[in-house]
Design brief:
The structure holds 2 protein chains of 2 kinds. Chain A is of the alpha/beta class. Helix content of chain A is 55%, strand content 9%. The chains are: A alpha/beta, B alpha/beta. Chain B: One of its GO terms (biological process) is SRP-dependent cotranslational protein targeting to membrane.
């Protein structure tokens, strides 16, 4: 339902094609689109503003001489900045203290603390090979303690009993004493959900934290949260010496802009993502993944990387020079087809582009890789001389080529005709980097996927 | 039962039936943060009787966006405001803004009516995890009880650990009977039982809890469809309300949630919870604009009285705090 950023930028930056450099003028529209995309992803407005300024500075003057469209260049910068601001990837728990290492979980109601407590315990037991127990200090929500016990049982995690008639601080102190006596290395303390504006409750969790001096004080936050993420994160960060953040419910389809907001205001690493009902559904945090999600465009980014990685820059330059002289021949055409196949073929390229879903039915079927392969085979059946000078291909040569490639004279004719049109178009494209622009056309989405003058 | 430290429970009914100080007052208290943010500023932005210029509109846009109103609904409000300002000329900007916002919210402020010829009326709460479905039903049960309805609670969240116990505790606190089966049993069967049991007991309303589920989980949405199919087959078919419970701090994803749940089982109303934080719940504008589903209740605090029928004027007034 939301347009992803590449669709937005695609529209805005259409007129930018052919300009070699991003300027203040031509990117201000683009920045407006970036702003909208981030707001739709629930990144908090003050954070969006800071971020846009950052990106604008980086984008101005950026050259667009690579095989990317201006839109793709902007996306690349936005994505890189997002990743950078999102912080370190997979920050491990730091539990190197005199045992027992205490982990305190805090957050708003319904953020997913209890589920996270048990997932975290599983991670500590199974991956870190440490002994661990969990305890609930939530004496407020009806049956909250039962919930932790039931989850712990299901996950095979040991828990310390507590009772809603006790005080949270007493529960926690008892629990620490117990695990110390038992020689258990880690204790996870689940707390009641609380509103950051509730002074009594915030004082309570502060007291818990200062009494326990936990090795980790983790803020648990729902990835579906909106603009308010900034305020609650700020309040919890001010009240508690947070050591990290856990983002929950990422198995939903929220863009998760809250992640950037929280990171921005707390400066604390996001350590884990909670991603499902199962107790092993706790993932290490990877900034690229969350950044792509916020932009709503996982595959576009991998496509950009792929084009960058796989397009042989030298070859592209040589070819551009050739086109300029009008010397584009069938050998070069063959190279182009190879190039495309290296990137997984036309259909795989199209698959990765946003918006292909909106193409009219049948349009995608017309673009099949078999068609390109057949063109390649026809060219392969020509002699070197024929490829360099297609004009010499007469009737009998056509028959030979058709027989050699297992096609028909009509198909050979069609190829030659299309190639002739391509050559004509290319001669008209005098500007530098013409071929690269064609490659961009393939990456730029929509109908401009094929070389000029070339209709399947 | 209430000897749980000095702090009153977040989810517990009040120890004594505190009488609230009026709907508007309570709303304002709950929404005070929004008011601070929006209202005061409208006054600051545009002096009374002044003109609404583009700078003021842009600032207003920022404020609305920060209240989670969302891009589309924000533009709609601002366009409406511009149009009104152009026509009215010298009208008070605060009044114009109020009217522009009411244009969106007034049509969806439809209170829930539980009267039915085929008793019991069934109310089912659905939503993603952690939005406050069980708590909302507990409070709603107390409300209906106080307005002399015979209420039956149905523990249809058979998935989450201790969800049944949570509703049973609400049953104890409110003195309402609870129909429950064991953990892991079929939710549709619990609801079916509860409706039949409600008929036998002469209940007026059955409140059915369901497990929180992300709308992206097909198998869980399928389970919900089954609950509805089962209700639909009961003869005579009971009248029912399917309430989507939404946490006020939810961002733009609330819209996706609402659309997905609506498509799966056909929602008939919305409850907006947790308005007592700093979250502004502006998402109701986006919901109203896109889906037009009635907004039935809002939760503005911990007490039972703080579950309020949604009233567009109070809501906007609380936002604008005149």
């Amino acid at each position: 339902m939301f347009d992803n950023l590449s669709e937005r930028l695609g529209r805005t930056l259409k007129n930018l094609r052919g300009q070699g450099r991003l300027s203040e003028d031509n990117i201000s529209e683009a920045m407006r689109e970036v702003r909208m995309a981030l707001l739709e992803a629930d990144v908090a407005l003050p954070v969006v503003k800071d971020f846009i300024e950052h990106v604008r500075e980086r984008a101005i003057g950026q050259e667009v001489a690579t095989s990317l469209t201006p839109g793709q260049v902007v996306i690349k910068i936005v994505h890189e900045e997002l990743v950078r601001l999102m912080g370190e990837s997979a920050t491990p728990l730091s539990l190197n203290v005199a045992p027992p290492a205490v982990i305190l979980l805090a957050g708003l109601q319904g953020a997913g603390k209890t589920t996270t407590a048990v997932k975290l315990a599983r991670h500590i037991r199974d991956d870190l090979k440490r002994s661990v127990k969990v305890v609930s200090c939530d004496v407020y929500r009806p049956a909250a303690i039962d919930q932790l016990h039931a989850y712990a049982d299901q996950a095979g995690i040991e828990y310390l009993p507590s009772d809603s008639s006790q005080k949270p601080l007493d529960i926690a102190r008892d629990a620490v004493a117990t695990v110390r006596r038992q020689g258990v290395e880690t204790l996870i303390v689940d707390t009641a959900g609380r509103l950051h504006v509730d002074e009594d409750m915030m004082a309570e969790v502060q007291a818990l934290n200062s009494d326990l001096s936990p090795a980790e004080t983790l803020f648990v936050i729902d990835s579906m949260m909106g603009q308010d993420a900034v305020k609650s994160a700020e309040a919890f960060n001010n009240a508690l010496p947070l050591s990290g953040v856990i983002l929950t419910k990422v198995d939903g389809d929220a863009r998760g802009g809250a992640a950037l907001s929280v990171r921005h205001v707390t400066g604390k690493p996001i350590k884990f993502l909670g991603s499902g009902e199962k107790f092993d559904a706790l993932e290490a945090f990877h900034p690229e993944r969350v950044a792509s999600r916020i932009l709503g465009m996982g595959d576009v980014l991998s496509l950009i990387e792929e084009v960058e990685r796989k397009t042989d820059q030298d070859k592209a330059k040589k070819m551009a020079a050739k086109i300029k002289k009008g010397g584009f021949d069938l050998d070069d055409f063959r190279d182009q087809i190879n190039e495309m196949n290296r990137m997984g073929g036309m259909s795989s390229l199209l698959d990765k582009l946003p918006g292909t879903g909106q193409l009219p039915a049948g349009a995608l079927n017309q673009v099949n890789d078999g068609m390109f392969n057949r063109l390649g085979t026809i060219i392969d059946s020509m002699t070197q001389k024929e490829r360099r000078k297609p004009d010499i291909i007469n009737g009998s040569r056509k028959k030979r080529i058709a027989a050699g490639s297992g096609t028909s004279v009509q198909e050979v004719n069609k190829l030659l005709k299309q190639f002739g049109q391509m050559q004509k178009t290319m001669k008209r494209m005098k500007r530098k980097g013409g071929l690269q622009k064609m490659l961009q056309g393939m990456g730029g989405g929509g109908g401009g996927g094929l070389p000029p003058g070339f209709k399947p | 039962m209430f000897s749980k430290g000095s702090k009153q429970s977040n989810d517990a009914p009040p120890a004594a039936a505190e009488k609230s100080g009026g709907l508007l007052k309570s709303l304002k208290r709950g929404l005070s943060k929004t008011r601070d943010l929006l209202l005061t500023d409208v006054g600051d932005l545009v002096p009374r009787g002044g003109k609404i210029d583009e700078a003021a509109l842009e600032e207003l846009e920022n404020r609305l966006l920060q209240a989670d109103v969302g891009i589309d609904a924000t533009s709609a409000i601002l366009d409406n405001l511009r149009e009104r300002a152009r026509k009215a000329g010298d009208g008070d900007p605060g009044d114009l803004l109020r009217a522009a916002m009411l244009d969106i919210l007034a049509p969806v402020a439809q209170p829930l009516d539980v009267s039915t010829a085929n008793k019991p009326f069934v109310i089912m709460a659905v939503g993603v995890n952690g939005v406050g479905k069980t708590t909302t039903l507990g409070k709603l049960g107390a409300h209906l009880r106080d307005s002399h309805h015979k209420v039956l609670l149905a523990a249809g969240d058979t998935f989450r650990a201790a969800a049944i116990e949570q509703l049973q505790e609400w049953g104890e606190r409110t003195g309402l009977p609870v129909i429950a089966q064991s953990h892991g049993s079929d939710a549709a069967s619990v609801v079916f039982d509860a409706i039949h049991s409600g008929r036998a007991r002469g209940s007026d309303v059955v409140l059915a809890d369901t497990a929180g589920r992300l709308h992206t989980k097909d198998y869980l949405m399928t389970e919900l469809k089954k609950v509805r199919r089962v209700i639909d087959k009961i003869e005579p078919r009971p009248d029912y309300e399917v309430l989507l419970v939404i946490d006020a701090s939810t961002g733009q994803n609330a819209l996706v949630q609402a659309k997905e749940f609506h498509q799966a089982i056909g929602l008939t109303g919305i409850v907006l919870t947790k308005l007592d934080g700093t979250a502004r719940g502006g998402i109701v504008f986006a919901l109203a604009q896109n889906l037009g589903l009635p907004i039935r209740y809002i939760g503005v605090g911990e007490r039972i009285e703080d579950l309020r029928p949604f009233d567009a004027e109070s809501f906007v007034d609380a936002l604008l705090a005149q």
